Amino acid sequence: MTTVLNAPHDLTTEASQCATFYLGNQLMGVDIQQVQEINRHATVAAVPHAPECVQGVINLRGEVVTVLDLRRVLGLEPVEITKETRNVIVNVEGEKLGLLVDRIADVVSTRPDQIEAPPANIRGVDGRFFRGVCKLESELLVILDVLEVFQGSREEYTR
Prior knowledge:
This protein is mainly β. Helix content is 10%, strand content 46%. The strands form 3 sheets. Strands 8-1-2-13-12-9 form a 6-stranded mixed β-sheet. The termini are far apart.
């Protein structure tokens, strides 16, 4: 029997939307309600003694925002900065956080009955970072748990 997760915000019958992006060839997404904006990758100021997953900080209209290399958070090779690289600015626990991604895709609507529990280990990545997996027509959408990514990056500081 397949375990079905509730969509973000416990919507039981209504569709929700995910802002999607790629890390390599893997389509990933976050609840669009957590996304503030998507920007071109800007020059970041390095943070001394920060964990490897912290790319640095940016000034976003007067607010300092930490930018994470999402690939490193997930235990993958670091991102290669290209003209398609973007920062997905998300709100989590009252803070803004930039997620550095390879390229942006589309906004995808999902229904709770389409979302399955993620495998514990998705291609060598710790499954705790994922809320679920949604089967689309041509590929799988892995739904990211932004809170877990945020907390995981904080754990890096205490090591």
